[in-house]
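User: Look at the shape:
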Amino acid sequence: MVYAIVRAGGRQEKVSVGDHVTLDRVEAEAGSTIELPAVMLVDGDEVTTSADELSKVTVTAEVQENLRGKKIVIHKFKNKTGYHKRQGHRSELTRVKVTSIA
């Protein structure tokens, strides 16, 4: 089984061909392709972590859609003072499908 660990946004994701992965927003339109930098490559029993060999590895993915994540509600409260503050946040995300690891 071939899979790769790629750097995407501030995180690392384990991907193989055909996987659908949700990443932090990537500046690309739906239907376009992007390349993700590989951190590690596993091909059967062979593990590659050398920077020189990984520079030759390309992980390509097709952008499926740009979307927004689930709403997170932040509520700050201080007892006996009447202070409370509500704030919401939704992350900008991109869903991609890994098409090849070469």
User: Anything to note?
Assistant: Residues 1-99 form one domain. The first helix runs from residue 51 to 54. The beta strands are 2-8, 11-15, 20-24, 33-36, 38-43, 46-48, 59-68, 72-78, 83-89, 92-101. The chain has a mean pLDDT of 95.
